[in-house]
Amino acid sequence: MQARNESGYELWLRYRPLDDAERLAQYRAAINSVVVLGTSATAAIIKNELVRAMPALLDVDVPFVDNPIGNTLIVGTVDELKTIGVSISPDDSRNIGDEGCVIASAEGAKQSLISNLQSLRDAPQSPISNLQCLITANAAPAVLTGVFHLLRLLQTHQDIRALDIVSVPKIRHRILAHWDNLDGTIERGYAGRSLWNWDELPAKIAARYHDYARACASIGINGACLTNVNASIKGLTAEYLEKTAALADGFRPYGVRVFLSPQFTAPVRIGGLSTSDPRDPNVAAWWKDKVDEIYRLIPDFGGFQVKANSEGQPGPQDNGANHDDGANMLADALAPHGGFLLWRAFVYDTNIDADRANCANKEFVPLDGKFRSNVLVQAKNGPIDFQPREPFHPLFGAMPRTPLALELQITQEYLGQSKHLVYLGGMWKEVLDSDTYAQGVGSTVAKIVSAPMNSCIVGVANTGTDRNWCGHHFSQANWYAFGRLAWDYELSAEAIADEWIRMTWSNESRVVDMLKPMMLGSWEACVNYMMPLGLHHLMKEHHHYGPDPGFNGAPRPDWNNVYYHRADMNGIGFDRTHTGSINVGMYHRPLCEEFDNIATCPEKFLLWFHHVPWHHRLYSGRTLWQELQHRYDEGITFVEEMQNAWQRLQSKIDGERFEHVRQRLTHQLENAREWRDVCIEYFGQFQNSATESH
Ligand code: GCW
Q1: 413 is catalytic
Q2: Cα distance between residue 444 and residue 450, in whole Å
Q3: Residue 229 beta carbon below 6 angstroms from any ligand 1 atom
Q4: Is residue 385 lining ligand 1, measured as CB closer than 6 Å?
Q5: More confident residue, 454 or 638
Q6: 457 and 174 in contact (C-beta within 8 Å)?
Q7: For the segment 174-223, what is each residue's pLDDT rounded down to a tens digit?
Q8: Half-sphere exposure of 215 (CA within 13 A, CB side)
């Protein structure tokens, strides 16, 4: 029987009855009632979630009770637990911090926080003699995290008899950055309009705001920057701050704090001052007042994310000041309230360096140590711009005295937008796991980003008003993977895909076994059919969809595609070696030598770092030109395989979602072929003349 149609609105939070009899029996035996302690708004959310999930998953009535009866799941903060006689040692509760949580079953808790659980349970007249499973944390939103964790275990059919889980996030601030404009459009959004209906706010709070925050909470996201880094001046006006406050009120019980992207010239444009120079005391005072105003409305406001002196955005350099002057002035305004500042390092002024990949380091490395402690310098994963594949940004490892935030792009601006099935878990893992060697072996990007000073990871959101949130059903996996990796970057891309498939599609092994390789191979396939071997920035201008390798009509050299691939009769690729732009010199040893030498440079970055002759032989034995063609074909073959695999799953997937994905895969194949045909024809001109001239 074909499953009933689904819109995808439920995301990975679909609570369907288990179709695994053994597990179902285990869960029913383990949890036959639930106690939710506390009276906070979050406690109400927790209760709602469990009321929704438990009977649906277990397909039986699961009573919610005030006192444990039978095998009970008990849920509450450490303080709330005391009211029923369960106490957690102060040391243990400190270890989980504000956001960590504990999930333990009586059988499972051996040495964990609730090591005293068994004895409490066995004590005569113990108030929790019926306890079977417990979820706790210091703060209510962290209890909610634990609830979603347990639900994930149930949704993915895990054995829950001996749970002993202590889950603490490895990165403190896990933020979705929305490039949402106040007119409802989204820069690089491919899933409809902005979720924030500014016209209706603050009076009308749409139910969807709660669903958004709930989805974020379910994967551990604890911040949302609501407005585009290409900022609108209106965002800081009293009118819009009230609207922002209404959203913040809605998100708070879910543990999601709001951030804003201000415009640097606000003191002039809405403050009536004659300058925005950050060194001017009146400017600093204006910002201080503005920030105080924000905190009066939003006591847990997170802070600002700023794009300054980048792509036409104003910034401190307009007044002859520098990034540290601008950042520190804003940071000082935020500091008394516990707020922090994300200052983006996405700068590429051609006067600084002719290679765009060098610019950020040249501007920011000299400022290391000059920023206030509540400033994080935020760099994209690679030094150009969210291309299908880039080596990690050399700023990671180059500013030891400055906390660095990592910015990833969930919305697939350069990776097929919401038309291509491309799972980004593997791409993000490649970056997080990259060893910068900044302090010897093991100085991975992940370690740098999670340094104890202040840690933050930002994902440019792919959400919008489309019923399925993300445009493509499979793009939901990227939102999901961002949250899961932000919480724990040690998770594998495969483990995350596995969870997501089970929750979003089905636990049936046939479905999991077919979808997982599809997802896991999809990123490399996209790299292959768009920009293999380290090629980058070959897309059409403005909308960035589809190939245009010959594009050379932009006003700046580095907005042209020929600037990046540099194809000529001799070869192709950007020479960033010590005889080229010397970008390799920005990496620590041994990477600089490894990248510099054509023989040791990883082939995935070959044309990123080298201008390579067409006849150069690769590991495969093929010449560069042959290899390029081979890679394009390989990418296309993978999309054909995805199409076939999907077709074979038809009986396992509901009609609505099946058809949606089927159509997109058809388009993806066409677009992949277009990439190959256009690029091969274009590069072939040089290759042909090269052959002729030999
Ligand atoms: O990826 C590029 C985008 C711009 C974006 C910019 C940035 C918000 O094409 O749309 O602007 O980067 O990250 O600031």
Answers
A1: yes
A2: 10
A3: yes
A4: yes
A5: 638
A6: yes
A7: 999 999 999 999 999 999 999 999 999 999 999 999 999 999 999 999 99
A8: 29
